[in-house]
Amino acid sequence: MEIQTYSPGQVPEDMLPPVQSVQSAPSSQPPAPAPYTRQPRRVGTVTLGVTLILLGILIPLALFLGENMWRLLQLAPVVLLCLGVEILVYSIRYKHDRFKYDGLSIFLVVLITFSTLLGAMLAPPLLNASAYAKKMDSVYMEVQQTAEDALAAASCTGDVCAYEGGRSWTAVFQDPDEVQRLPMYLEITLLTVDGSQAPSREQITAAFASVAAACGRNDNIESLHLSMKTKEPQGSIAYSADLTGSNIRNASISDMEARLRAEEILPSSTTTKNSGLATGYEDV
């Protein structure tokens, strides 16, 4: 019987004994947890939260309590100080930890700060302008009523026009409660005197003096312009007088006679005696 030998590593696979797989016994210990990775701390989030809380408190108070609370909003740059403190705290206390700047929070903090500061600067002038407009409307109605009462007391009818004396731009920088007097310019055009559209010069002078004295009781009337046009057979005559300040209150018939101006309006345009220009007016 011939025996065939094989060198190690050259034995055919069909002649090798089967290899039994050995299964390891299940382990009773749980798998080791994954190592914990701490999230980096975000710088700026705390300041944003504090800023929103303060705005939520101060803005409603400013809306209901008025100008003094609006001035508190001018402390908005303090928020930037809080942001700087937060950055220093994180840099010193957590210098061995990872942290990063919250770009969105820092941007919102800066935007809210400057927007609030701008609003706090604009709020008082806007509030003053609103209060000034309401006060001006009240004075306007008062002046209108004074002029109408003056016409009625002098047995006259006419048109009244009142307008402001040019303080609207400076009003926004001044507290309306501190404004004691609002100058108004008043123009009164008489249509009839004692029921007549063609009164005499003496009647017009007396009516102007009576109306001016009555208007002078209102301290807000800074300037007064009185006018009337009468119809004459040859045309018409335009009477006018201007008074300012204390002259309105102290108006009298003699004073009004000195101030009264009369210009004759001819039916057709003619040349005036003084200037030689075609104006349709001639002094009488």
Brief descriptors of the model:
single chain; 284 residues; alpha/beta; 2 domains; two-stranded parallel sheet; 8 strands; 19% strand; rod-shaped; disordered C terminus
Number of domains: 2
Strand order of the largest sheet: 3-4-5-6-7-8
| Order of helical and strand elements | EHHHEHEHEHEEHHEE
- State which percent range the strand residues make up: 15-25%
Structural class of the secondary elements?
Answer: alpha/beta
Q: Shape, please?
A: rod-shaped
Query: How many E-type strands?
Result: 8
Radius of gyration: 47 Å
Counted by DSSP, the helix tally is 8
Biggest sheet record: 6 strands, mixed
Our measurement of the CA-to-CA distance between the termini, rounded to an integer number of angstroms, reads 169 Å
**Rounded average pLDDT:** 77
Low-confidence stretches: 269-284
- Helical residue percent? 40-55%
Description:
This protein is an alpha/beta fold and 284 residues long. The protein has 2 domains: 39-130; 140-283, no CATH class. Helices cover 44% and strands 19% of the residues. The chain has helices at 45-65, 67-72, 78-93, 103-153, 168-171, 201-215, 246-249, 253-259; strands spanning 41-43, 99-101, 156-164, 184-193, 221-232, 235-244, 261-265, 281-283. The strands form 2 sheets. A 6-stranded mixed sheet has the order 3-4-5-6-7-8. The protein is rod-shaped.
Fold blueprint:
Elements: E1 41-43, H1 45-65, H2 67-72, H3 78-93, E2 99-101, H4 103-153, E3 156-164, H5 168-171, E4 184-193, H6 201-215, E5 221-232, E6 235-244, H7 246-249, H8 253-259, E7 261-265, E8 281-283
Parallel strand pairs: 1-2, 4-5
Antiparallel strand pairs: 3-4, 5-6, 6-7, 7-8
Helix pairs in contact: 1-3, 1-4, 4-6, 6-8
